[in-house]
Amino acid sequence: ALAQRLRRAQPGPLDSGTLVYAVASGKGGVGKSSVAANLAVALARQGKRVGLLDADVWGYSVPQLFGVRRSPVAVKGLMLPIEAYGVRLMSVGFLVGDGEPVVWRGPMLHKALEQFLSDVHWGELDVLLLDLPPGTGDVTLSLLELVPRAALLAVTTPQPTAQTVASRVGRMARDMGMPVAGIVENMSTVVCGDCGTPSALFGTGGGRRLADELGTELLSGIPLDPALRQACDDGVPVVAGAPQTPSALALSALATRL
Ligand code: ADP
């Protein structure tokens, strides 16, 4: 039902059947990229044709999260996305040397993002996920101008401060007339390694309050899970490498709601 509603709300230049979600957060470190990457893999495992555009140009992490070091090849002037775990990937990280910082200024970044949309042979996609930089800066605005039909998927932690900064992203979306697909609360609980009891390390309610404030749904609560952290470090998305772990199950369930 959500997909149907968004499809109607998303007329635009990309193939009109493609659902576009902009995965955003108020600040860094809340797990936005981990959510975007694993959601992409979970959707692909459901049989969807999925693209993931890493627009977190300074803090790009898609190469690390997918364990990919290759550079994309170009065919007839179009770059081919790199495919891993069934997802078509594009990232600034594929274009700069290993560990090199991106020192481009605004206009170059805008151009690069434009090219990621127009000069990459995405092929037919059911879903395109955009991993946005944290906050409401230039790159976020540029990209949302380039893809006005994207629906916002806001990632926050349960902490009140995280929720407050995330709400700025929500207000930006509203000001730009973007549909809001929902809220993902990451690091919702932590499960004690000894006794298995879940506890609310980062407090409770941030995701719910943000959803209420933006008049949208809290789609998922993803637990703090050592398996997810390990998978990120190993370069294997947790939903592929350890699909029965608590975080992987939550991320797969989230994919069924989009
Ligand atoms: P962001 O994109 O918001 O900056 P990342 O996705 O890069 O955040 O996550 C930051 C760090 O936190 C990474 O090392 C990641 O592995 C870890 N992390 C994110 N979510 C979880 C989780 N639910 N459980 C355990 N570790 C997590």
UniProtKB/TrEMBL annotation:
UniProt keyword terms in alphabetical order: ATP-binding, Hydrolase, Iron, Iron-sulfur, Metal-binding, Nucleotide-binding
For binding ATP, which residues are annotated in this chain's numbering? 26-33
GO terms, molecular function: ATP binding
Top-rank taxon, per record: Bacteria
* Keyword Acetylation found: no
Assembly and interactions? Homodimer.
Q: What family is reported? A: Belongs to the Mrp/NBP35 ATP-binding proteins family. In the N-terminal section; belongs to the MIP18 family.
Function, as annotated: Binds and transfers iron-sulfur (Fe-S) clusters to target apoproteins. Can hydrolyze ATP.
- The name on file for this protein is Iron-sulfur cluster carrier protein
**Full-protein residues shown:** 96 to 353 of 371
